[in-house]
């Protein structure tokens, strides 16, 4: 049924023209009648007719302005008329009132339907549904007669290959009707013609024979089987011996490790003593400094110098005295850091595996690994790096106010992969000091040691044109012990008078100190 337009049906008896729509020329569906001219139309057909300004339709037959109303009497008359089934030409003999046509189409054997299996999509008359589901549909459900499992017909071959209850034939004795899951048991226990492995196959015998030849084979090859057993036992003994040697090596590693731990503990005690000694020395120097400051009068100065000619010697001794205090504080800070690292390693848990034991044996510590106040690493590999120290005046003020010798540090990788650490001390007797050394990096195992002949340049970039260096210092890395293979205990090498505080005006721009590192291969 087409819901738009009228009924496309054939009446059983005579059809009158006043039952047809004037627009679609089919039997009226929900008829509407014009009050002026009396023409009738399907309700759905009026949708496409324009209304005039007075909201009236224009009759498509006589072009008059019309109003329409629902013609229920004619609708009842039409629905009560007998019609033939729309499939009467295919053979359907149904003929009843038009109002019953829709219900008939739902059960009509000649109505075209779609296969209920979504993947199929075939179309056929309803009377062929049973045949299609039983014989034609590729997606019909099948029941395996052997395992009672359901499967789709188009997957029948896959099911036949996988069905464990499918009866198959033995390839050796031709026995039939053996379920697939029992075939392995049949070949091992029952089939007299299936080749079998020797009972001593696990020892290495590669002979295969029929079931009734096994006893004869065992008798004839008994010496061969004994030799195989002896070889197997010998191989097992070798494995046990190697495992014993491995165990001895692990035990030896553990003994050496315990000895190293004991040495580390002793080193820790010695380092603590050195720290205490350095602290006492610093305290003594501070006391001497206070005493020296109290000698401000001309009388005391004359007593110390003895004469006016000795005043220059006193000034030199005074500068050396201040330098000694600064060096003692810096060495004490480094010694304290080394002691902390040694103590951490000394009380670490003992490794259980031989690999861990080997890696822990005789592990040295490096002053390059001492923790610092600020530490940055540039992981890009290049022979030239730029370090910008922001808020440098704040760092200098902290160093002066707290009398601190904790450095600001940065590390970088050269183009070859060497990792270089640079320590910057903002205040060391009115100078900025700089020191450098190698430290543990990602590529150490693949590099050449000692370092190839090269020169490390440390420069302070001027603020005026951004190209001139205010101060520079160079280190020959191939001859300097601080650039040996890390980890090591060599004190970093550098310059205590790298940049004078009086030159800050030339070097600092927007409170930023810019340092350039360059590595020149020679």
Automatic annotation (TrEMBL):
Residues 104-150, 154-209 form the TRAF-type domain. Keywords: Coiled coil, Cytoplasm, Metal-binding, Repeat, Zinc, Zinc-finger. GO terms for cellular component: cytoplasm. GO terms for molecular function: zinc ion binding. Residues 21-63 form the RING-type domain. GO terms for biological process: regulation of apoptotic process; signal transduction. A zinc finger (TRAF-type) spans 104-150, 154-209. This is Uncharacterized protein. It comes from Clytia hemisphaerica.
